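G., the chain you wanted modeled:
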Amino acid sequence: MNENELWQRVSQEETPELCQEYMDTFPAGPHFKDAENKLKIIRGCNSIQLMFLKKYVQQGLISLGALQRAGLTEPKLTMLQEQLGIVESKYWDAVSALGTREACIEYLKYFPSGVHAPQVRSILDRIDDEPWYNACQIDTIEAYKEYMHQYPGRHNAEAEARIKSLHLIGLKDEAENVWQSIKDSKVADDFVAYKRNYPGFHDEEADQKIAWINGRQDIYRLIDEMKADPNALSVFEIQDYLQSHTLTTDDLEEVFGSQKTQAILNYQSPSILPAGGAPPELSGGSTEVYFWGTPSSGKTCALGGIISNAGRKGILEKLQCTGYDYMTRLSNIFDSKGYCTFPDSTSIGNIQEMMMRLIDKKQKTHSVTLVDLAGELFRCVYAQSNGLFLDDERTATLNTMLHYLTDKRNKKMHFFVVEYGAQDKKWEGLTMANYLAHMVSFLEQEQIIKKSTVGVYVLVTKCDKIPCSREERPEKAFRFVEEELGEFWGPLQRICARNGVADLKVLSYSVGDVFAQKLCKFDPSDTEKVLEKIFVHTKAEGGTWGWLKE
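Predicted structure as tokens:
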């Protein structure tokens, strides 16, 4: 036994023998003086003045229990207890009121010979026998085994006798119950174990199950893969497996349930969203809300969800603009009452102007222009900054973006849409993190984020992939941006601070329950966070800016 272990025993048991053993074994030990003092107090407790005993107890040099065991006289013990505020009636009241094992033990710790000690021991015995009573009430083999595991030595003989009796009586019923519980299993080992544990019961059926399962191992691996990750296979791959009879409808229902299975069976490729037709310049008189995102970031889906939710709530008035058709078709792919299909990626030059009025809780209207910026712009900016070739289409797209951003007529907001966990995803050899870091450098160089910018947000999409509760997503999303996208987040913070942009936030976002990569049960909850930011930072007609009213 090492020094620390022996000292722990001394501290817990506080006997003169252990104190002496520690002093003999570890004469240079760190607790030698403590052991020596404890030994002196134990041996001389009746000769030590009461005021010093009280001090020793309060300082933790000795416990009241150790003094009792050392033979402290009853009058002196009673006086010490009173001075320490340990009154028998108080502990008896606790036993009477609570009736718990802890209350009984606490009473007996201080008053082993107290007036109520016999009653307390009787209560404690009843409490200790309650688990046995409960096991008898349940009256199963498992209950008795659990009792013996939890309380070894108490009622063991009775428990073992009852287990044997139940086993003999219920073996047939047990075998049948187990068979019913595993008969639909797709794990061969379940039936191998059944034959071993219950020979003579369902042997032939178990053999048939084992042979059938062994012939479907590859299929079960697919099923397990989809159970672990509903997006492990795309809807196209699943439909191919169905067509080749590798998977069945029953297999899909086991993984997804009946409604999602029907959505997969009925899936059709989404209609192509109209290409961009952005005007030379944006209309004045409304706040411009820009949505940035690398290819496949989920930006288009996020925008569609926001517009769809605003329309569903009756707070959206679409205005005629070049992106009216795009805005309408985009919002129609989302339906809070059913399943929706994700659109394909937008075209290279797809900058969409979507003008609208949003109506707040006070029925005031806010004029807003949502601008869906092409993901290709990240490649354009990188190419131009590094002297790489840009064709006419990409050059025109980049110039259009710069013209919008440098127009000083309107207030501006920016949402940078990033996909959770995709920091290393590559396009043309560069990662999402590379493109974002380069873009923020470009925006600083072009002085895009200025005092006219009223809000900048990093919208972390696909947060349903984070293995945590919904309540934990905002913190996890922030940590993802801070730790994985530092080359983008750090400069963005500094730019906003220099230009007086106070509202820089990371927002977690999910369009809902995504499965088979292209399908989703729409959940509008996270769109509310984006709409709230837009309301706060846009001017209500006939009113003031939202942020001035807060």
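The two ends are 66 Å apart (CA to CA).

Shout if anything looks off.
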